[in-house]
Amino acid sequence: MTPPIIEWVKLYTTPEDLYRTYVDSAKHSEMTGMPAEMSEQVGAKWSAFGGSIYGTNLMFVPGKMIVQTWRSTEFKKTDSDSIMVMNFSKTTDGAAQIHLVHVNVAEQDHKGVTNGWKQYYWDPWRAYIKKLKGKK
Fold first, then answer.
1. Cβ 128 vs Cβ 22: under 8 Å
2. Does the pTM exceed 0.90?
């Protein structure tokens, strides 16, 4: 069993904006620079990075939490789905925080997924927020 991936990420926007960016296909695609198919429908399939990660929506608390099954193309057919939970909250200095818990990531992809959160989500998300603030 692989250890859980647990991260705290601070971004200078609102929890609601973070939530909306993640669940909206167009915003998610723009933020990551890769095609995404997202929805807020429980039970619906989702995918990102042109289908290289995918899963099923399990639960939503609008503006606050997202729970999804999660797989990558590196998972073997015999690997169980992993579970990803993102919680969004305000910080005392007016920013927003993401608390990510990602469990049951396949052993052969654990290092890639761990590094991938920063490379493919946190850094692009920061750049996306900065770009949006520059448009105002």
1. no
2. yes
Q: Which alpha helices (DSSP H) does 1-122 contain, by range?
A: 15-23, 25-32, 110-116
pLDDT tens digits, 67-119? 999 999 999 999 999 999 999 999 999 999 999 999 999 999 999 999 999 99
Angstrom distance (rounded) from CA 23 to CA 61: 12
Q: Are 14 and 90 in contact (CB under 8 A)?
A: yes
* Other C-beta atoms lying within 10 Å of the C-beta of residue 123: 11
Run of H or E residues at 57: strand 53-61
> Residues 83, 70: contact at Cβ < 8 Å?
yes
